[in-house]
Amino acid sequence: MKEMKLVSKRFGKINPLSIDEYINFDGYKNLKKALKMEKTSIIEEVEKAYLRGRGGAGFPTAIKMMGLAKETNKEKFIICNADEGEPGNFKDRYLMENDPHQVLEGMLIVAYATGATKGYIYVRGEYQKSISLLKWSIDEAKKNGYLGKNILGSKFNFDIEVRSGAGSYVCGEEFALIESLEGKPGRTRVKPPFPTSVGLHNKPTLINNVETFSTIPSLIEMGGLEFAKIGTPSSTGTKLISLSGNVKHKGVFEIPYGVPIRDVIYKLGGGIEKDRKIKMVQLGGACGPIIPDYMLDMIIDYERFEEFESKTGAGAIIVMDERFDLFDILLKVVRFFQHESCGKCTPCREGHIQLANLIIKFIERKATVKDIISLESLARVIHQASLCGLGQTSPTAIISSLRYFRDDYIDRIEHPQKG
Question: Which keywords does this chain's UniProt record carry (predicted)?
């Protein structure tokens, strides 16, 4: 099995510090093409491509672009969400460190199509190399006429500024990110209104993640219909996968949607270290479902993932072999969300404390049937009643484990002496 490289085609082939090498490898040619197109035509191409956000939620990119384009405010913003804090995900860092100009080119095309006046890249604070490379690339783009006023001799003006997060996981959620950019504590807002109407500084704002913006130049080059031929009807194009855990070859791989998870693990990842058996695989990151080995023939696709009451996530596949205990993993996941909860809403703030207490009972083999009922009920309350998407997806690992590993729970209840 080979990768299909669209957004990762320059990885390792150009010096990311060199704008000349980027330009010589088809860089900024799609911005030039876009500047000759009608703005509405660019959005139509994105709509034909059925490009969905690569950050996790999978919202159609064209709808966001249409929403921003129709706003008449003189100030409109674009934000690139590079606050990649989900455990198991590292593909956005690869994009920023290997091809930073592609991120800028994607933002420029979207800005031109929607009439945005300024862009921000909100980067995870721990990604210092990414921050340095982006700042360097922005300066180079300005010197060469790709950013600033009258870009490439046109009437299009646009600038990009890099801002750093401070380590808060919840700032990956779009409203918390906006609050942080405004200098406030990173906490979500009640919606609607949505950012394309009332966003940064109460101005219309479009937010997409690094991979989404990086996909735009290839989409413009191919045309929307050709792009849509890649993948599946509900999930078009390619996806960067962050493969980690007990596989032989860890790393970032680009695949077309529709590839079975098992192929990614065994054909790209080389299988499991020392040929051990797979106990479980977590998809998407800490907020994603945990599935057993027999489900690995499932394809990577937005519709298929909906059965988990979750999204595809940002593309992480975390493989855990038979040496690992389900409940130890669940406790780590719950502790992570307990620590990262912003504390604004009660279900998330208090719920994770109680989830941890219940999981500990299963680890210590002191749980009862009443505890499994409480665990399931509490996880669903957090899922349905938390204020933001991060809180809502935080119990996905528990909900999926109750569905696919229920025998493990029952065993802990029926055999307390094993421990």
Answer: 4Fe-4S, Iron, Iron-sulfur, Metal-binding
Cβ partners under 8 Å of residue 130, min gap 6: 82, 93, 96, 97, 100, 123, 124
- 244, β-bridge pairs: 318
Extract the tokens encoding 386. 């938390």
CATH code for the domain of 266: 3.10.20.600
Burial of 129-158, coded b for 16+ CB within 10 Å and e otherwise, reads: ebbebbbebbebbeeeebbbeebeeeebeb
Same-domain status, 207 and 78: yes
What are the tokens at 298?
């499932």
Tell how many helices (H) and how many strands (E) occur in the chain.
18, 11
pLDDT for the residue 371: 97
Of 198, 229, 260, which residue constitutes the final position of a domain? 229
pLDDT digits (tens, 9 = 90+) for 69-85: 999 999 999 999 999 98
Sheet holding 290-291, edge to edge: 251-256, 238-245, 316-321, 278-283, 290-291
Domain boundary among 278, 297, 321: 321
pTM: 0.94
